[in-house]
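notes to self, project folder thing:

trying the whole complex as one job this time. last attempt i did each chain seperately and stitching them together was a nightmare. two parts in total, labels are on each line so i dont mix them up again. if this works i'll redo the older ones the same way
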Amino acid sequence: MKEILADIDGWRQAGKRVALATVVQVYGSAPRPLGAKLAVSEDGAMVGSVSGGCVESATVQEALEVLSTGAPRLVSYGIADETAWEVGLACGGTIEVFVEPLDW
Amino acid sequence: MAELFDQVAQAIREDELCAVVTALSGERVGGKLLARRAAPREGGSPVEIAGSLGNGALDQAAVERARDAMEAGRTTRVTIAAEGREWDLLIDVHVPQEKLVIVGAVHIAIPLVTFAKALGLYTVVIDARQIFATQDRFDHADELVRSWPEDALPEMTLSESTYFVTLTHDEKLDTPALIHSLDHPVGYVGALGSKRTHAKRVVVLREAGVSDEKIARIHAPIGLDLGGRSPEEIALAIMAEIVQVRNRRTDRNTDRSKEGRK
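result (full assembly):
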């Protein structure tokens, strides 16, 4: 969390809305632990991570949708798929990510 | 908007032990509660609460679980019963960065910084003596503070996640630093020096009004007895003792939180 605060502050000071994605469940081995975070600005910039890189772009899409609807959502990703192998994650894990607008 | 987030950000910037509870589903999805505690764990110190999950009984149950999670120092997902139903919550715990404060930029401090960093501690070395506190010797330390301990220490946060050692070989420097550290809930206090040196130090500390209970917190002679003599061996002995203290504390907390789940 600490490492993403500066970017979040910058976005908010620039008047941009921000969404926060947090790893809330880890099944099997996964590259990032419970509580790992990715913040996304309304213009699609991101900071932090929820995986080793394989589900970040999908999470950014979810975050942008959450910002437009205003409703938080729980998203599940299996990262034992081909994409995961391509980025070198031989992990076979599944993660669940909670995506919410940072409006609290 | 974002008032609670500002409080969360502040707690994390100040490196406090805190927990953010989020409702992950149901009608209160996205509900937030912040539980923070800057004070020591001993004595059941109060938890400060901000925000709400939207129901008093749910908040109360969530705070209990947040307290356990903070004790264990671990982020956890829980299901709790309140209002006659079950709630799916994430308890996101921020654990302060563990820190080793070394008073005395002596030879032993050089390998000690290396070992401490390898074990994940943030390292701070304090010494006003220019001949010891050189950037060359301590380029690997996170912070090298070139001041006297009495000036440097009041500026620092000394919490239970801080491990504190005095190594100057000069009681005029070590003793005031020890007295300062014992007024804080630091996780470990160790003082270099033989049994004889420590016996003399105890007399001085008592004369300065330090209680026997506080004096008993000092690990002296410092370090596990590995039988070594070289600065590297002594540094290893010190680090080994810190690891032992750290693991015993974690075990105790983990056991307690397990009991809480039964």
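what i see at first glance: The interface with chain B takes residues 1-2, 5, 8-9, 12, 22, 24-25, 33-35, 71-72, 74, 98, 100, 102-104 of chain A (CB under 8 Å).
need to look closer tmrw
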